[in-house]
Amino acid sequence: MTDKDKLKNEDLKDDQNENIDEIEDNIDESTNNDENIEESENSDDKYSNLMDKFMRLQADFTNFKRRTEKEKSEYVELGVKKVVNDLLPVMDNFERALDSLNKEDAAYEGIEMIKNQLKDVLKKEGIVEMEALGVEFDPMLHHAVLTEESDEYDSGYVIEVLQKGYLIDDKTLRPAMVKVSQ
Asked: Quick one: pLDDT at residue 167?
């Protein structure tokens, strides 16, 4: 073999090596493209899964906030009811004191002012005295303690209020103790 042939041979080998390298690069690129496509599909799935998790967490958080706000308002309402239930006997005692005093007595006016002030505070919190005298007996609003014959009222009507009842936002806070006609 001549030098010329050797050079051609070497050139051919170099060309072949370059071609082989080029083919390998193409194969690598093709494989990378397939991997990129798979990665792209995987990343779309991952994105969808992450978005789903995010949406669920967001909904859970919203529900948590709503539930805690509701519980908080229920605790406040419970606290108000508890304090007011402790204050209602004080209001009853003011009324008993007023009933036992003469209107001309100096203490009468002072006790009445304190009772009215307490009544205003309760009213500001949505607590009002229920009307019971002369209305039809309602077991949701009244607690019947006595029954009596009455010419003035039909059967089933409240003829006397023994202890006043109170409402809080149109719900019974304390039922009125009443005497009912038969």
From this structure: 92
**Residues 148-181 pLDDT 10s:** 898 888 888 999 999 999 998 888 999 999 999 9
d(CA 126, CA 15): 97
CB 132 within 8 A of CB 165: yes
Top-level class of domain 1-125: alpha beta
Q: Is the pTM of this model over 0.70?
A: no
CA pair distance 29, 19, nearest whole angstrom: 15
CA-based nearest residue to 179, from 165, 164, 163, 158? 158
3-state SS class at 71:
helix
Name the superfamily (CATH) of residues 127-182: Head domain of nucleotide exchange factor GrpE (2.30.22.10)
Q: Position 123: which residue type?
A: K
Tokens 């009443």 locate to: 178
